[in-house]
Structures are given as structure tokens and as C-alpha cells.
Amino acid sequence: MIIFANAKINLGLFILKKRKDGYHEISSLKFPIPLCDVIEILPSEHFELKILGTPIDGDMQDNLIYKAYSILKEKNSIDPVRIVLQKNIPMGAGVGGGSADATFTLMGLNDYFNLNLSKETLKGYAAQLGSDCPFFVDTKPQLASGKGDELVEFELSLKGKFLYLIHPNIHISTAEAYANVEPMSSSFEWESLKQKDFMFWKENLANDFEKSIFPNHPEIEGLKLELYENGAQYASMSGSGSSVFGIFDERPKELFPEFKAQFILAL
To answer: What's 144's DSSP letter?
Structure first.
């Protein structure tokens, strides 16, 4: 069985308040993009995880794919499998690559073993793996609230547009991303994205992590500004970074030859 696990971007991300459980309350529009890791599930006498492409540091037990398999095995007594991951989505980029891999593994194993688990059950398992994970059970635009795991479908099409995504290979830890963030309430009306042009997006839609990250990493802010200078209708950092994206009317030319992890995608 072969599965394509797609990434996402955040169209706006507002950090509203600190929660009692230590997490932050957010409001964001998560939008799926056609940049995919490839996962293959094969029979095996014992569990194996082989990773191709971009290497992933750490023990196998810490990998979200292994954790996804472990959750299903604990609940459903499934047989061992060999999972081969072709890693194309850059790591630590704020586009949900690891979360996508974990969630698509859950869904793939559900199909592979004919478990017939409902979407709600899969979302419950996914939530145990991470706040971004439940989003990938339904690969469509969704408004995210709470820790990012409370989701409501949101109808928004960018069909015909092009996405330019750059990952500058800068690692930003969660601690650094939140270090200088000042949570504040937001009255942003998400429905206005459907009614307004991209100038409205540029002037009103924000990623609050930029306030924390750009002062320490001006080169990331520079990427965003360069996207605008080259015709992007809207540009932003995704999630807690460090990737930056721009939305274009027409397919843009390659702007950053110094970076390996850059992608021009038709939406």
C-alpha cells in the first residue's frame, strides 16, 4: 500500500491566550498543499521503519509514525508491518510534515488491516500524537482553534493560484517561537477572506509568530519581503516557521537558488 501524506500551510495564526494546561489558545486557517511525503506499508515479521530522503534524527521510538503504529496496535492488536517513508517535506518548517506522516499512517493502517475505524476515532488517536495531527484526517481547509486541534471545515478555494514555499534550513524550537509572543484577543472575521481581495489579506491577516521570530532571524523576514517584491499577492511565515510562502497569480520564477528546500506548487 502506498500513501501520499500532504503538508499544510497556515493562512494567518493568532495567538489568543495562555491556557491553564500550558498550551496556547490559537485561531488559524490550516490549508492543505500538494507537497507530499510518500509512505509504503508492507507485510513483515517484525515492525520496521525505513526512512529515505531527508534523514530524521532520534530513536525510532520517538518517531511519530512508530507512535501511530503503537497506538493502533495497542487498541486493535494488528500484525507487524514494514513502513518505508520517502521524506520530501522539510522538517521543522511549520508545514506539518511529521504530523501528516503520523496521521496518514493511522489512516493507511486502518485501511491495510480493514479496521473500519470512523473518522472521529482516527481523529481521537491523532490528537494523542500532536495538536496538528487531527487536521490531516480530512484534507481540506479547516479553521483551527483551541490548541489547534478543534477543527471546523472552511470553504476556501485557491484553485488556479501558485504557491512558492521556501524553507531556509533554520531550526526554530517551540520555546524560541513562543519566547517573545504576547497573546492578545483577535476579532478577525475569517469569513472576510472569501469576500475581500489579497490586499485585505496583506493588511489584516497575520501570523503572530512573526513578531517573535523575525527580530532574531531577519533573513526569514527578508524572504517574505522578497516574495512581495517579486509579485506575491500574499506572503507569510507558516506556523512557527521557519518556512515562508507566497501566493502568486502566475507561476513565479525561481528566486532563491541558494536553498535546496523550495517548491513551486499549483494549487
So the answer is: E
Q: Place 60 in a pLDDT band, splitting at 50, 70 and 90.
A: confident
Active site residues: 8, 132
CATH architecture observed for domain 162-266: 2-Layer Sandwich (3.30)
Per-residue burial over 134-149, b = 16 or more CB atoms within 10 Å of its CB, e = otherwise:
bbbbebebbbbeebbb
Span 137-150, pLDDT tens digits? 998 999 999 988 89
| Residue-wise pLDDT tens digits, 69-120 | 999 999 898 999 999 999 999 988 999 999 999 999 999 999 999 999 999 9
Grid cell locating 92 = 521543522
- Among the four given CATH numbers 3.60.60.10, 3.30.230.10, 1.10.10.10, 3.30.70.1450, the one describing domain 2-153: 3.30.230.10
Measure the CA–CA gap between 173 and 184, rounded to whole angstroms: 22
Reported as half-sphere exposure (CB side, CA atoms, 13 A), residue 153 has a value of: 6
User: Would you list the domain boundaries of the chain?
Assistant: 2-153, 162-266
- CA 124 – CA 126 distance, rounded (Å): 5
Q: Could you tell me if residue 75 is left (phi over 0), alpha (psi between -120 and 50 degrees) or otherwise beta?
A: alpha
Scanning the chain, the segments in alpha helix (DSSP H) are 64-76, 97-112, 119-129, 174-179, 192-195, 198-204, 209-213, 218-229
135 CB-near residues (< 8 Å, 6+ apart): 8, 30, 96, 99, 103, 142, 144, 148, 149, 151
Which residues in the chain belong to E strands, given as ranges? 2-18, 24-43, 48-53, 81-87, 142-145, 150-153, 162-166, 234-237, 244-248, 262-266
- Residue 180 C-alpha cell reads as 517573545
